Every structure is written in structure tokens, then in C-alpha cells.
Amino acid sequence: MAQILVFPMVLLLTFSPSSYAKCAYEAIFNFGDSNSDTGGFYSAFPSQPSPNGMTYFSKPT
What InterPro entries does its record include (predicted)? Predict the structure, then answer.
């Protein structure tokens, strides 16, 4: 079964056009974008408090 899948994959990867393209820029600089630092994910997508932002009769549980 593995040989049946490996051969078509090798053919596909061998004859497929390459997606490599020369970039016009040598480097990309980012000066302090808050969503690009390591904590940006939590800033952009904050988690909801338990249980999913809902309260029980408007009082904390």
C-alpha cells in the first residue's frame, strides 16, 4: 500500500512546477508592530473568561 502512494507522490513532486520565485527585497524590517511580537496573538485574539464569557445570573461562580 505504501509503494502505491509513494510512486505517484514522487512523480507529482518531480514534475510539478517550482514555486520558488526571486524576491525583489533583500530584507524586511518591522519596527514595533504590536501584532508581530510574541505576545501579539493574545492581544489580537483574547481568550474569554470561563465559562466562555457567560455568567450564571450575572454573578461570578
Answer: SGNH_hydro_sf
CA dist 60 and 56 (Å) reads 7
Residue 50 predicted with pLDDT over 70 = no
Question: Nearest Cα to 33, choosing from 24, 25, 43?
Answer: 43
Residue 60 lies in a domain: no
pLDDT of res. 48 = 58
Query: Is 56 domain-assigned?
Result: no
Q: Is the residue at 61 inside a domain?
A: no
Does the pTM surpass 0.70? The reply is: no
DSSP 4-60: HHHHHHHHHHHHSPP-----S-S-------TTTSTTHHHHHSPPPPTTTT--BTTB-
